[in-house]
């Protein structure tokens, strides 16, 4: 029998408000353990939560950007359970009346547009962090993270493959980064993902028993965990077994999922210490007006406005900073496609090599445009430009300055080039002979020798025409 | 007159006239504590040094324009006091020293109040007798073989025996009014949201309130003025302006309409003496020109069950934070795993009544039973609120006994939590509705004080204080405390 995967994701995203959700403690990342804590984070007697208004704003913004309906009235609830990193023995979350519902994220698997539904998006507080002593018999507790503001985004089980889940997560992340509510760094835990996955015979409408996989630390892990679960569950079903509704965790090192716990029931109760969240139409509209152009809209515009191929447009708009950099450069240089080529090839290369982010770029769009103009004017060759580009990337210096300092100006002097060409012909009689005998390759060799002689600064078009002329004359 | 017998108002007059100093007053009360404590056991922590130090600095400031400046008081031990042990009278917090003050404490400190110490209570405020304290049982100053009531029994006993001039208690289901009634003093439960709960260990967050326990109604008005008002640290505190409670204390109650809920006054649990004392109080009001009529709070019979379910469900959630991980008691025996650790820590750290409520509440609020019990209790609560709304359309105030009987014997009925809860019949219904109510002495039965409860509309503390004041002006029950008690 052929099986179909039914996948839904629960994504937790840390909002980067300045302070925590229910107190004034800082949300700064990587601070010394337990330095951003107060009686409220620690769940001390009599401490009461205080709602941080920016969290509501950030969350509403996210909900709107994800096409959700925002509830005029929502409320907080307690999820009661015991765990050492949960100071109050309950997490303040939204359960009965969440902030947002019924949204979607668009993905394009195999070039086909598809919507992945968002069932619910709600606000909640994060728990602290247990740091287990390697090989020791005790654990450390860091409560800096306790009370960090989160939104939980629960998708509909609309995804059918690891690829679709990957696309969904990627787009979700891009949207949230675009609207600047989170940096969505999976590695730093500011975006976390749980997978719900079940299998069913292809064509069946009924849902199979769902398994939850927790603890995914990267986009790649999400993909691998889904593929692993698909295989594991298929194997069980094909051998006539049944799937248990359970929670499993992903073991990155072994590349497998491991049983964690069975499904238990939760205890929810209304949070009595917080007033309901009431969002007026004015407030909602104000937040909506602050949502910038979203990636999919930007991509379509780039294709239309700049004539970019879809591939280029989607890569450039995947990051807001990159898209802004691109658009800024377009203002100073006439050919959008050439800019795109430089970004897609040279810039991506150096970023990959150095591991730096676009936000750390040292040179400006204007400087990149100036460099491209220098190529057009014949001041530098395209080949030299690559060196200039790397220098700009390293130092942020103006291209003119780099060219001057390194003496990289292209040699376009006819007489000078002719002299060099003559010398090369003289020194390479064998190659000249080969050329005369019809070996085209010999020509490239001679060009290369001229380039070597001029340290790459010779104007390549001129070298070609001079050399052709000289060889004819022989 | 001895200094410890003074009321806030009298003491303030003497301090202002420089006839006494705050240090003299504090020393006198500390001596009184030394004299009484072996018999009463009202305190769990006495901060002699701190009290004397702040009395001295208050004397140095020599500013007694605030009526609470230099007046020694005590606070129930679930109200957090910075650098001073706050135990909730539980083994769980036996050595807990908060790094912060509850808002009510900060407000009193700003007024240069002298904090003598922390008073005994039922563990985590669960109980009606102060017998479930981890430390010791407090004795009723009127009869040492009897309980002072609870859970603010220590606070009420301390006021009744002059071991402080006034005290703060917490009232979740009558825990200020019931012990005030048993000890023959005045206890006020403000409207929910009138006084900040920040820094007070939660029991049931939708019903908890902080209230004064004082020697008379005037003092009660003074203390409430000091602690009432919105607090940015408590999102449930109200922004409704605070009345000038003192100014409104007038003898004139003519024409006021008072309702007497017959389901409460004539309940089978109410003893004859108590009923007679309340009927007599009604007579006093009629003589003062009030219109008193019997009314029906028709769903009162469901209040006790709704209250118990709400209390247990909320308490089970609130008390989860005491898990031995970050502070407080932690088991010293070996444990197998995390679950075993929690079991042992909480099993050893909590007393019987607390565990009884936690287990009941956990069951009641489980997903499976949530609708059946917790949600239903909340629906009853809404109905009861409506009954009160209806009553207050016609009447300005409602009058009931505070407690069905006078103080019971230590050890009596404490093995039956349901029977214990009948003591709270008339008081806990008020917490369900979030209304303000006061208890004040209205008579005696076999030498034990009887309490009268006056219930008002939401945020009409000024009104109930005034009505209570009028009654107090027409009898001497509140002053008999000094003559007739045991120590």
From TrEMBL, chain A:
Role played: Allows the formation of correctly charged Asn-tRNA(Asn) or Gln-tRNA(Gln) through the transamidation of misacylated Asp-tRNA(Asn) or Glu-tRNA(Gln) in organisms which lack either or both of asparaginyl-tRNA or glutaminyl-tRNA synthetases. The reaction takes place in the presence of glutamine and ATP through an activated phospho-Asp-tRNA(Asn) or phospho-Glu-tRNA(Gln).
Domain Asn/Gln amidotransferase: 324-471
PROSITE patterns: GATB
Domain of life: Bacteria
GO MF, one example: glutaminyl-tRNA synthase (glutamine-hydrolyzing) activity
Reaction equations catalysed: L-glutamyl-tRNA(Gln) + L-glutamine + ATP + H2O = L-glutaminyl-tRNA(Gln) + L-glutamate + ADP + phosphate + H(+); L-aspartyl-tRNA(Asn) + L-glutamine + ATP + H2O = L-asparaginyl-tRNA(Asn) + L-glutamate + ADP + phosphate + 2 H(+)
InterPro entries: Asn/Gln-tRNA_amidoTrfase_suB/E, Asn/Gln-tRNA_Trfase_suB/E_cat, Asn/Gln_amidotransferase, Asn/Gln_tRNA_amidoTrase-B-like, GatB, GatB_C_1, GatB_Yqey_C_2, Gln-tRNA_amidoTrfase_suB_CS
Key words of the record: ATP-binding, Ligase, Nucleotide-binding, Protein biosynthesis, Transferase
Top-tier EC class: ligase
Protein name (Swiss-Prot/TrEMBL): Aspartyl/glutamyl-tRNA(Asn/Gln) amidotransferase subunit B
SUPFAM superfamilies in UniProt: GatB/YqeY motif, Glutamine synthetase/guanido kinase
Family: Belongs to the GatB/GatE family. GatB subfamily.
Single Gene Ontology BP annotation: translation
Subunit structure: Heterotrimer of A, B and C subunits.
NCBIfam families named in the record: gatB, PRK05477.1-2, PRK05477.1-4
PANTHER family registered for this protein in UniProt: GLUTAMYL-TRNA GLN AMIDOTRANSFERASE SUBUNIT B MITOCHONDRIAL AND PROKARYOTIC PET112-RELATED, GLUTAMYL-TRNA(GLN) AMIDOTRANSFERASE SUBUNIT B, MITOCHONDRIAL
Gene, per the UniProt record: gatB
E.C. no: 6.3.5.-
Pfam family, one: GatB_Yqey
From TrEMBL, chain B:
Record's protein name: Glutamyl-tRNA(Gln) amidotransferase subunit A
GO cellular-component term (any): glutamyl-tRNA(Gln) amidotransferase complex
Active site: 76 (charge relay system), 151 (charge relay system), 175 (acyl-ester intermediate)
Superkingdom of this protein's organism: Bacteria
Subunit composition and interactions: Heterotrimer of A, B and C subunits.
Gene: gatA
GO molecular function, one term: transferase activity
Family named by the database record: Belongs to the amidase family. GatA subfamily.
Species this chain originates from: Tepidanaerobacter syntrophicus
Catalytic activity: L-glutamyl-tRNA(Gln) + L-glutamine + ATP + H2O = L-glutaminyl-tRNA(Gln) + L-glutamate + ADP + phosphate + H(+)
Domain Amidase: from-to ranges: 24-465
Database matches in Gene3D superfamilies: Amidase signature (AS) domain
E.C. code: 6.3.5.7
Keywords, in A-Z order: ATP-binding, Ligase, Nucleotide-binding, Protein biosynthesis, Transferase
InterPro entries per UniProt: Amidase, Amidase_CS, Amidase_dom, AS_sf, GatA
Cited function: Allows the formation of correctly charged Gln-tRNA(Gln) through the transamidation of misacylated Glu-tRNA(Gln) in organisms which lack glutaminyl-tRNA synthetase. The reaction takes place in the presence of glutamine and ATP through an activated gamma-phospho-Glu-tRNA(Gln).
EC main group: ligase
One of the GO biological process terms: translation
């Amino acid at each position: 029998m052929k099986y179909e995967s039914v996948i839904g994701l629960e994504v937790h995203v840390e909002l980067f408000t300045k302070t925590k959700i229910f107190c004034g403690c800082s949300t700064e990342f990587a601070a010394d353990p337990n330095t951003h804590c107060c009686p409220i984070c620690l769940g001390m007697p009599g401490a009461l939560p205080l709602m941080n208004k920016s969290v509501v704003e950030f969350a509403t913004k996210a909900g709107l950007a994800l096409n959700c309906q925002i509830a005029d009235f929502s409320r907080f609830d307690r999820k009661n359970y015991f765990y050492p990193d949960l100071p109050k023995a309950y997490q303040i979350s939204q359960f009965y009346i969440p902030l947002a519902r019924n949204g979607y994220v668009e993905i394009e698997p195999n070039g086909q547009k598809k919507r992945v539904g968002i069932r619910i998006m709600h606000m909640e507080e994060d728990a602290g962090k247990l740091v287990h002593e390697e090989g020791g018999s005790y654990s450390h507790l860091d409560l800096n993270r306790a009370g960090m503001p989160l939104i939980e985004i629960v998708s509909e089980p609309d995804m059918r493959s690891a690829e679709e889940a990957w696309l969904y997560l990627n787009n979700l992340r891009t949207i949230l980064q675009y609207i600047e509510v989170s940096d969505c760094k999976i590695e730093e835990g500011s975006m976390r993902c749980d997978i719900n996955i079940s299998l069913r015979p292809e064509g069946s409408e009924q849902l199979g028993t769902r398994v939850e996989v927790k603890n995914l630390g990267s986009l790649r892990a999400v993909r691998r965990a889904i593929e692993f679960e698909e295989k594991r569950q298929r194997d069980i079903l094909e051998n006539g077994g049944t799937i248990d509704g359970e929670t499993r965790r992903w073991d990155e090192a072994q590349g497998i999922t491991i049983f964690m716990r069975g499904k238990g029931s939760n205890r929810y109760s209304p949070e009595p210490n917080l007033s309901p969240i009431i969002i007026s139409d004015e407030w909602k509209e104000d937040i909506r007006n602050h949502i910038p152009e979203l990636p999919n809209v930007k991509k379509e515009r780039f294709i239309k406005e700049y004539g970019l191929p879809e591939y280029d447009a989607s890569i450039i708009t995947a990051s807001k900073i990159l898209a802004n950099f691109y658009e800024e450069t377009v203002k100073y240089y006439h050919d959008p496609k050439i800019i795109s080529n430089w970004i897609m090839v040279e810039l991506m290369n150096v970023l990959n090599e150095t591991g730096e982010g676009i936000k750390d770029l040292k040179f400006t769009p204007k400087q990149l445009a100036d460099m491209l103009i220098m190529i057009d004017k014949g001041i530098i060759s395209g080949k030299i430009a690559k060196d200039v580009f790397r220098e700009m990337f390293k130092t942020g210096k103006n291209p003119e300055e780099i060219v001057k300092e390194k003496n990289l100006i292209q040699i376009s002097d006819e007489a000078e080039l002719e002299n060099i060409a003559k010398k090369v012909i003289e020194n390479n009689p064998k190659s000249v002979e080969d050329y005369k005998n019809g070996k085209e390759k010999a020509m490239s060799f001679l060009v290369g020798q001229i380039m070597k002689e001029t340290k790459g600064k010779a104007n390549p078009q001129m070298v070609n025409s001079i050399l052709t002329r000289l060889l004819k004359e022989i | 007159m001895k200094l410890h017998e003074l009321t806030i108002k009298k003491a303030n007059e003497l301090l202002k006239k420089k006839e006494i100093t705050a240090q003299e007053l504090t020393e006198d009360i500390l001596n009184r504590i030394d004299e009484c404590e072996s018999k009463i056991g009202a305190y769990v922590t006495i901060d002699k040094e701190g009290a004397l130090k702040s009395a001295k600095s208050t004397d140095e400031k020599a500013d007694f324009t605030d009526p609470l400046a230099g007046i020694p008081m005590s606070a129930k031990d679930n109200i957090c006091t910075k650098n001073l042990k706050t135990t909730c009278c539980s083994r769980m917090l036996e050595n807990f020293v908060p790094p912060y003050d509850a808002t009510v404490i900060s407000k009193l400190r700003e007024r240069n109040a002298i904090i003598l110490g922390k008073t005994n209570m039922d563990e985590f405020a669960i109980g009606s007798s102060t017998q479930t304290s981890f430390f010791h049982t407090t004795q009723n100053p009127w009869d040492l073989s009897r309980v002072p009531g609870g859970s603010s029994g220590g606070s009420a006993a301390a006021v009744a025996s002059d071991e402080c001039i006034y005290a703060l208690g917490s009232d979740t289901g009558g825990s200020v009014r019931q012990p005030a009634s048993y000890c023959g003093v005045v206890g006020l439960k403000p409207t929910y949201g009138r006084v900040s709960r920040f820094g007070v260990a939660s029991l049931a967050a939708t019903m908890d309130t902080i209230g004064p326990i004082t020697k008379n109604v005037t003092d009660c008005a003074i203390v409430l003025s000091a602690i009432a008002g919105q607090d940015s640290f408590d999102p449930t505190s109200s922004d409704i302006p605070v009345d000038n409670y003192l100014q409104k204390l007038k003898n004139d109650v003519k024409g006021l309409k008072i309702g007497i809920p017959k389901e409460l006054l004539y309940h089978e649990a109410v003893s004859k003496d108590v009923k007679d004392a309340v009927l007599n109080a009604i007579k006093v009001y009629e003589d003062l020109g009030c219109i008193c009529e019997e009314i029906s709070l028709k769903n009162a019979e469901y209040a006790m069950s709704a209250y118990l379910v709400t209390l247990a469900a909320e308490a089970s959630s609130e008390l989860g934070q005491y898990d031995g991980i970050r502070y407080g008691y932690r088991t010293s025996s070996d444990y197998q795993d995390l679950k075993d650790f929690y079991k042992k820590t909480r099993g050893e750290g909590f007393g019987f009544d607390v565990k009884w409520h936690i287990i009941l509440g956990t069951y009641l609020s489980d997903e499976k039973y949530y609708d059946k019990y917790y949600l239903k209790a909340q629906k009853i609560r809404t109905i009861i609120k409506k009954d009160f709304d209806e009553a207050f359309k016609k009447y300005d105030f409602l009058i009931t006994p505070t407690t069905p009987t006078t103080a019971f014997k230590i050890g009596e009925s404490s093995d039956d939590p349901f029977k214990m809860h009948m003591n709270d019949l008339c008081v806990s219904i008020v917490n369900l509705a979030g209304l303000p109510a006061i208890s004040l002495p209205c008579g005696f039965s076999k030498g034990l004080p009887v309490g009268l409860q006056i219930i008002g509309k939401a945020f009409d503390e000024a009104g109930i204080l005034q009505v209570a004041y009028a009654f107090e002006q027409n009898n001497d029950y509140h002053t008999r405390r000094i003559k007739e008690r045991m120590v």
